[in-house]
TrEMBL record:
SUPFAM superfamilies: alpha/beta-Hydrolases (SSF53474), Galactose-binding domain-like (SSF49785), P-loop containing nucleoside triphosphate hydrolases (SSF52540)
Transmembrane spans: 18-37, 598-620
Superkingdom, natural source: Bacteria
A single MF term (Gene Ontology): ATP binding
Annotated ABC transporter domain residues: 638-866
Protein name, per record: Alpha/beta fold hydrolase
Keyword Iron: no
Family: Belongs to the ABC transporter superfamily.
Keyword tags: ATP-binding, Hydrolase, Membrane, Nucleotide-binding, Transmembrane, Transmembrane helix, Transport
Length: 933
């Protein structure tokens, strides 16, 4: 019985294909992990103690412990750009060695060093003071200027970027402000205004009335121990004598200086004194503010001309998102290119591998364009991350990345009505103990695992709750609320925080952040609250999604473990204006699904294997159903009938779309953003299933895995290549992955179309956007498929290349082949396409030949012989049936009001005018705008 035998054999073959596909998936996943950040070139490293001139006059020598990472490609004959890589507070050059090696592997000379007061470097910590740490870095730029393997912008001016996080991030900002030789910077999780960072006050009163961030300050000074450095520096810190071998005479040690060293480590004496003063009083004096201002980028942002990529952590109670916001606004105000990205991590929590990869990719793109001068210009989209469920692999929250067009985020406000007794009494405990717990400095990840909601002490907080949300609210920015308070002392320190409460009553505190507030001049009792206007409190900036069915909870507490509050016990009365909570709602675009875990991936792969045999028969049957050919359209490259696509949330992307693409045609698919073009193309390629209607390619119905898809060549939603391979190797591997014979690729013809020349042998990561675009089009044309589908094929091409592309597409649509082009360049579509399909709101509103769609029109453009213009204008203006005749630089524009085109030609010829051309002046763009309106 040959029929069933054949069927069984086809099922066996299908099972083999399924198993092969599973193996390929595993291999590709491993490959993706391997190439996430390729190691790149081999790197050689040299370390040395170098002496540089620093200090206020740059005339004080200091020894710095340095390392230089040099890629194998760098030489005197081939100099490359350089990167200064600065470490965070408490670290050293060893802290950033792995990152330095990666950057060097990408073709940069990387210089790392231990900042003064850290590691083996000399000096004391001056907290990024312009006279000391900044001048140290300026001296290191001088050393880069003397290297023949570093690219130079001019004499004494190396091509250099500065990258660093936290302490190193502030240094990059300050260095760019004080030294214009810096060409690009990437500051991460750093500060804008150090007084405000350590003495925040959320009503805008300023650091003089701020609430001291004592836990973080104590951690800073506690981490700067006396170890390391030069013996002579340690002797100076102790006020002691040392011999030539560095041995300190114990009898000469100054007890007061020894105590200071124990308390403040290798901090400079003036900073130590100011810290001890702040730790004792909990207040910022004018001297403290002036000293911290010296180390603040806020005052020099208008000097920064280096393109700046600001990366800030969303889990950071030390330097919150508002610090990056202030830096971004100040730098962008001068016209300097700025890009902002938030990520799930910060001083309170280390990022996941996925988030680290995202930061690395953003950094490399920024350096490749603004430092090396290659690669596409990074867009200005702002991105941030929201947390999801807890990963079973590493117990971190899974994440989803969102983008917004530009920075700062723009959106409408969402008002939340709060309910609760008003006013409410809350007690400030004696000496601020016990205190509420919102975060543990440097261990926020641990805090979130123990209690994502923090700990509020009963009797010390007021609680206000909003109604259940009827829809999800995406927030990117700083919420605000208005509060009132009364205090028997006339003063109060309060901590305001916003919780996300799920349907089961579980509360989370996004970022573990609170808004500290110091209020003065308060009424003494609750009955006097009505006489005072509410105070607006700016809550911590956040990027967060409040899910549908959740609610918000506003808590006002009298204490927080991370801050210094009043020691005197008191009972305050607090109230919240009912409708005053304002959430800065935005409409972001998700760019990635929630992060999966390897456990779920492996489970999914095993499930595929188990179900493979079962699904084989179903696949065979489905192929039989879809293999039936519609005789009426068997010779037609593409037939679309009543196409419809609705998503699960009710969004109707495509409503009713019908058109055909005949042999020899170049058809343009036009429509405004959101019209459904990309959705239609994805259905055409079998990437998603239609909700209704059908798509036929040469009479075969399209669905995922349909064999007829092999007759389609496509370039949709941007090119994707392996960056570490050459263009030629990418094309070969792509064709090899299709399983078809190498000789059927027609590779030489595709390369001729690409026009890359010798660049086809170079690695794709060195390509410009235009080169990537041409390579992608060549890839789509491999094998000369019968139907070519291109999405925005001229992006990144210059005018000559665009003109060449017109000829390529016209030549391609021969011998029964056809082309479907989606583009927003209407002038290009009008010149290259024979037919157009116009889509608006998911519905086809027009289809047909370009000439018919454009129509005759009442306006014509007349070209006349040079020198005949005036005679022609005189004749036309006197002609009946012509309302307007005027030159426009390309000819004479004639508006017909009853006359025909032939009448115009006869009139001009009769007047002795040489007529060279007469064409309709109405453009496709005019028709398009009329149709979509």
């Amino acid at each position: 019985m040959p029929g069933p035998a054949r069927t069984g054999w086809r099922a066996v073959v299908t099972v083999r294909r399924v198993l092969t596909t599973v193996a390929v998936i595993v291999a590709v996943a491993a490959l993706i992990v391997w190439i996430r950040w390729p190691d790149g070139e081999s790197v050689r490293t040299t370390s040395a103690m170098v002496t540089v001139q620093s200090g206020p006059g740059r005339n004080q020598p200091i020894a710095l412990d340095t390392s230089v990472f040099v890629p194998s490609s760098a030489s005197a004959d081939h100099p490359v750009p350089a990167v200064l890589l600065a470490h965070g507070f408490g670290g050293s050059k060893d802290s950033v060695a792995a990152q330095a090696r990666k950057l060097a592997g990408q073709g940069y000379v990387v210089l790392t060093w231990s900042a003064r007061g850290f590691g083996r470097s000399g000096g004391t910590i001056s907290l990024d003071d312009p006279d000391y740490e900044v001048n140290d870095a300026r001296a290191l730029i001088d050393r880069l200027a003397d290297r023949d393997d570093v690219e130079q912008d001019g004499s004494g001016d190396p091509r250099v970027a500065v990258v660093g996080g936290s302490y190193g991030g502030a240094l990059s900002l300050l260095l760019a402000g004080y030294d214009q030789r810096v060409d690009a910077i990437v500051p991460q999780i750093t500060w804008n205004d150090l007084p405000n960072a350590f003495f925040p006050e959320s009503t805008g009163a300023g650091p003089a009335d701020g609430v001291f961030k004592r836990s973080w300050a104590g951690l800073f000074f506690g981490s700067a121990g006396a170890g390391g450095g030069n013996p002579s520096d340690l002797a100076a810190l102790l006020g002691a004598r040392s011999d030539s071998n560095g041995e300190i005479d114990p009898a000469s040690i100054d007890p007061a200086k020894a105590e200071e060293l124990v308390q403040c480590g290798r901090f400079s004496p003036d900073l130590c004194r100011l810290y001890l003063q702040a730790a004792t009083t909990g207040r910022a004096t004018p001297e403290i503010i002036r000293r911290l201002d010296r180390a603040s980028p806020a005052g020099i942002l208008n000097r920064i001309k280096a393109p700046t990529l600001l990366i800030q952590g969303q889990a950071d109670t030390l330097f919150p998102l508002s610090e990056a916001d202030a830096n971004a606004r100040g730098i962008a105000a001068t016209g300097t290119p700025v890009k902002v990205a938030w990520y799930a991590g910060g001083h309170d929590s280390s990022p996941s591998t996925r988030e680290s990869d995202r930061i690395d990719a953003l950094t490399l793109d920024w350096l490749h364009h603004y430092l090396r001068g290659g690669g596409p210009k990074p867009n200005t989209d702002f991105s941030y991350t929201t947390a999801g469920a807890i990963s079973v692999r590493d117990t971190r929250p899974t994440t989803r990345i969102y983008t917004l067009n530009g920075y700062p985020p723009q959106g409408d406000g969402y008002r939340v009505r709060l309910y609760g007794p008003s006013p409410q009494p809350i007690a400030n405990p004696p000496a601020g103990t016990p205190a509420a717990l919102s975060s543990l400095p440097g261990t926020g990840a641990l805090t979130s695992r123990l209690s994502s909601a923090g700990i509020d002490v009963p009797g010390q907080f007021a609680n206000y709750t909003g109604v259940e949300l009827s829809r999800s609210i995406d927030v990117a920015g700083a919420p605000t609320v208005q509060i009132q308070a009364a205090s028997p002392t006339g003063e109060a320190v309060l901590f305001v925080k916003l919780y996300d409460v799920d349907a089961d009553g579980r509360a989370t505190l996004p970022g573990g952040a609170v808004a500290p507030v110091r209020l003065t001049g308060l009424p003494r009792s609750a009955d006097q609250l009505g006489s005072r206007l509410p105070v607006t409190v700016t809550l911590p900036t956040l990027g967060h999604r409040f899910e549908s069915g959740h609610s918000v909870r506003l808590v006002i507490s009298t204490s927080d473990q991370a801050y210094a509050g009043p020691v005197t016990p008191a009972v305050y009365q607090v109230a919240v204006a009912a409708n005053s909570l304002h959430l800065p709602e935005v409409t972001p675009v998700p760019v990635a699904d929630a992060t999966g875990t390897w456990l779920w991936v492996l489970a999914g792969l095993l499930l595929l294997v188990v179900l493979g045999v079962t699904s084989a028969v179903l696949i065979v049957r489905a192929r039989r159903r879809t293999s039936a050919v519609d005789p009426a359209t068997a010779e037609v490259p593409l037939t679309v009938r009543g196409l419809r696509k609705a998503y699960g949330d009710g969004y109707l992307a495509v409503r009713d779309l019908s058109f055909t693409v005949e042999p020899g045609q170049v058809v343009g698919l036009l429509g405004p953003n959101g019209a459904g073009k990309t959705t239609a193309l994805r259905m055409l390629l079998g990437l998603i299933r239609p909700s209704g209607g059908e798509i036929l390619v040469f009479g075969h119905r399209i669905g995922p895995g349909a064999p007829v898809l092999s007759r389609i060549g496509a370039f949709v939603e941007g090119p994707g290549f392996l960056p570490h391979l050459s263009g030629l190797e990418n094309l070969r591997r792509y064709w090899q992955a299709t399983g078809r014979p190498a000789e059927s690729a027609r590779l030489d013809e595709a390369l001729e179309i690409a026009g890359l020349g010798a660049a086809v042998e170079r690695k794709v990561k060195t390509y410009s956007q235009g080169m990537r675009q041409r390579l992608a089009i060549a890839q789509a044309m491999l094998g000369l498929p019968d139907l070519l589908v291109l999405d925005e094929p001229t992006n990144g091409l210059d005018p000559p290349q665009i003109a060449e592309m017109r000829e390529v597409l016209s030549r391609y649509a021969t011998d029964g082949r056809a082309v479907l082009v989606s583009s927003h360049l209407l002038a290009e579509v009008e010149q290259v396409c024979t037919h157009v399909v116009v889509v608006s709101k998911g519905t086809g509103v027009a289809a047909g030949p370009v000439a018919e769609i454009v129509g005759e029109g009442r306006s014509v453009l007349v070209g006349v012989r040079s020198g005949d213009e005036e005679v022609a204008l005189t004749a036309l203006r006197a002609m009946p049936g012509v309302s307007v005749a005027q030159p426009n630089g390309h000819g004479l524009v004639v508006e017909l009001a009853g006359a025909e085109r032939g009448d115009v030609v006869r009139e001009l010829v009769g007047a002795g005018v040489g007529v060279e051309r007469l064409v309709a002046r109405r453009r496709l763009e005019d028709v398009f705008l009329e149709l979509v309106k």
